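Continuing the series of single-chain predictions for the mutant panel. This is the parent chain; the variants come on the following pages.
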Amino acid sequence: MGLNVLSPAQVNQFIECGYTTVEEAFPRQQALVAQEFLWERLAERGVLKNDRSTWEPMVRMNENYNDPVFEPCTTERLIAATEDLLGQGRRLQQTKGWGWWPVNFASGADKPWDVPTTGWHWDGSHFRHFVDAPDQGLLMLCMFSDIGHHGGGTLVAEGSHKLVARFLKDHPGLELREAYNLCNLTNPWLAELTGKGDQPHAQNRVEYFMENTYQDDVTSLRVVETTGAPGDVILCHPFLYHAASQNHSGIPRFMCNRTTPLKDRMNFDRSDSDYSAVEVSIRNAILV
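Parent structure:
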């Protein structure tokens, strides 16, 4: 497949690590205009931009906004980047709404920054999970504020999409919570990351999970803190484990999650070998 936005290195990062970043997927200025719209919605809840005393550590706006302010954010660049990973013409037309806003003002700011034991998951509570399921396609983490080090950026578990692919191949048709509760126990690194069983690295989780790479016969695993700027989008594999992080920056983090479903189920045995990057990543995991 030809590439229109992503470089071969970015596609390879996606295949091996489970994510890649599209810088300026939509204009920074438009992202900041949309952020003002979100502040207006927060004000309706009594959370005021210029009054920090009204800020809560985390405010979850579970709305899907279809306001014109978001229309310029659906750019040709963003669409083309998703198709670089999903294949030309294989994605459903993106829904217009932008939603599910966990606005992180200062979650966990009262405690030392650490790698959490809870909250690790991959997305898809609205369908049963199969290794070839079309329902998710990609997870897009869309940024509407500057997100720096320890600024509440999503934590991702590099390489975890391979563990999930192998798990779903052997355990098809599970609902999400049952799926990841079982999957958590299939790998010792993942079990410790998600707080299952013994915790020998409880006192140095940042060092163990983020500063070192866990390597078994077929998989490299490491936790990475995502950062970025307004307008950046992180394209994540549908099977990638991720979790919220603490925000020690004092700057509210605005981002939303969007899915990019497929028209048809994924195909791991194409007669023309025209596999998408998502399909290649899964094939590489389940055919080892």
